[in-house]
Design a protein that fits this description.
With 232 residues, this protein is mostly beta strands. The chain is built from three helices and 17 strands. The chain has one domain: Acid Proteases (Cathepsin D, subunit A, domain 1).
Length: 232
């Protein structure tokens, strides 16, 4: 099930959420999503989906709200786009800022990785694993990722993503994803992808970003609320 607005659907066809809301089956025009992972596998995600509201008992501080914004790929505002304002890594000697300015960040439940521009991805790799650059491979068409034997993966420093200035910390555990396609192999949770030069810098916040968080999608007010989640 996709969560995009109707403007993004093919030929403007009503989405599942649009049909449910128009038929009066939802108390509120809202969906909420809690995502966790079991055993750290990319495809082994567990969670809870609520349509028409949210469960307050699962939403914990810190809680941030973000307005939905348009971007290069969606001037009609059909996707859940946010304003990414920074990426920071602390390699033990102090915080290093790798991104400044505004980046369009799209929430995605169909991709496990957090994807940034190739320039940002390679800069991040140079900080956390400069001796592993030769292990970067192709994850998908136009996408690059770091994949290697899980036993040979180093302990990553925390990486902080900033959305509208609000910090979202990816812990070392969050950044290690076990592959379900090849036993014993692991992904670094942040990858990079090609972007047209004329395009505004863009991120894709995949399911790795949703881990241990409770996300509320408010269709009526076009606002995303993100808080820490309670364990399932």
């Amino acid at each position: 099930m996709g969560f995009a607005f109707q403007q993004a659907s093919q030929l403007g066809a009503p989405t599942v959420m649009t049909n449910l809301w128009n038929s009066g089956k939802l108390e509120r025009n809202m969906a909420s999503l809690l995502v966790d992972r079991s055993l750290g596998h990319i495809g082994d995600l567990v969670g809870a989906l609520y349509l028409g509201g949210y469960d307050p008992s699962k939403l914990h501080e810190p809680i941030f709200q973000h307005p939905v914004r348009t971007g290069y790929i969606q001037p009609h505002g059909g996707f859940w786009g946010l304003k990414a304002t920074g990426l920071q890594v602390n390699n033990g000697t102090g915080p290093i800022d790798l991104v400044s300015g505004s980046n369009y960040a799209m929430l995605s439940t169909s991709n496990p990785l957090i994807l940034v521009s190739l320039k940002t991805f390679f800069a991040l790799m140079q900080v956390i694993a400069p001796d592993r650059m030769d292990q970067i491979g192709w994850y998908d068409s136009g996408m690059r990722a770091w994949l290697q034997a899980c036993d040979d993966m180093p302990v990553f420093p925390p990486v902080t993503l900033f959305i509208d200035g609000a910090p979202y910390v990816m812990t070392p555990e969050d950044l290690l994803l076990k592959s379900t396609a090849a036993e014993g192999l692991c992904f670094f949770a942040i990858g990079g992808f090609d972007q047209p030069a004329e395009q505004e810098p863009m991120w894709i916040l995949g399911t790795s970003f949703f881990q241990h968080r409770y996300t509320l999608l408010d269709y009526e007010n076009r606002v995303v609320t993100i808080g820490r989640s309670q364990s399932l």
